[in-house]
Design brief:
alpha+beta; Cytochrome Bc1 Complex, Chain D, domain 2; two-stranded antiparallel sheet; two-stranded antiparallel ribbon; 9 helices; 6 strands; 47% helix
């Protein structure tokens, strides 16, 4: 029963975040990097270094990363922090009990996060790309951070050292007799180790990896599907011409 209640609370929180993004914050279009091996490898590195501490990917095995061009030795040397077996699944390093005490609930599994967050504002990748770029400092929150795409989220900004600290800048507009604050842009408070462009590119790599992880066979599926359609088209043409040849003398 407790698990059911927790799931409902988390689902409500996700819907609230999506509505906030859909109504008050337009989702930015995420770059499509699911065919870029270098970007996927960098995304995997970011995921393991910054996400896997709290979030698991329980349906993805480390050795599957060979599909994006990494060797087993590279995986063992650079990406195995929570286990010593390359065939193990990506389990979070955090203790579930500690996570519940700190955040109120265990951080969700991210294996199919990019496939489950689509909404009226765009695809799941668009949401994640916007979400990871709209954190801002909020001292009223326990973690010290808040997010425009998911207001009042319990997650801290784990990539803040890369992005630095920013704050949203608004302008007021009157609509139907009421003043409405509309996001104008961002002001950099303190610089990060990356420039804004470099950070956006890194988040694009991370989101691309999350997209790929949600369905590792998607590129093969699309490629095979194209060849199947071409084959069926050629077969249809041959069948049409054979049908015409067989029945040409029939009145």
């Amino acid at each position: 029963m407790k698990k059911l209640i927790l799931s409902l609370i988390m689902a409500l929180g996700l819907v609230t975040g999506a509505q906030a993004a859909g109504g008050g914050l337009a989702w930015d279009k995420a770059p499509n990097k699911t065919n870029d091996m270098a970007a996927l490898q960098n995304g995997a590195k970011l995921f393991v270094n910054y996400c896997l501490s709290c979030h698991s990917a329980a349906f993805m095995r480390f050795n599957r990363l060979q599909d994006i061009g990494l060797t087993e030795r590279q995986i063992k040397d650079n990406l195995l922090f929570t286990t010593d077996k390359v065939g193990e699944t990506m389990k979070a390093a955090i203790d579930p009990k500690q996570a519940k005490d700190w955040f109120g609930a265990n951080p969700p599994d991210l294996t199919v996060i990019a496939r489950s967050r689509s909404g009226a504002g765009g695809t799941g990748a668009d949401y994640l790309y916007t979400y990871m770029r709209t954190f801002y400092r909020d001292d009223t929150k326990a973690t010290g951070w808040n997010n425009l795409a998911f207001p009042n989220i319990a997650m801290p900004h784990v990539l803040w050292e890369l992005q630095g600290e920013r704050k949203p800048v608004y302008f007021e507009k009157e609509e139907h007799g009421h003043k409405v604050s509309i996001l104008k842009g961002w002001q950099q408070v303190t610089p990060g180790t990356m420039t804004p462009l470099q950070y956006d590119q890194a988040i694009g790599d991370l989101v691309g990896y999350l997209q790929w992880m949600g369905e590792p066979a998607q590129n093969s599926r699309v490629r095979v599907g194209v060849w199947v359609l071409i084959f069926l088209l050629c077969l249809s043409f041959v069948a049409w011409r054979l049908n015409a040849a067989f029945w040409k003398d029939v009145k």
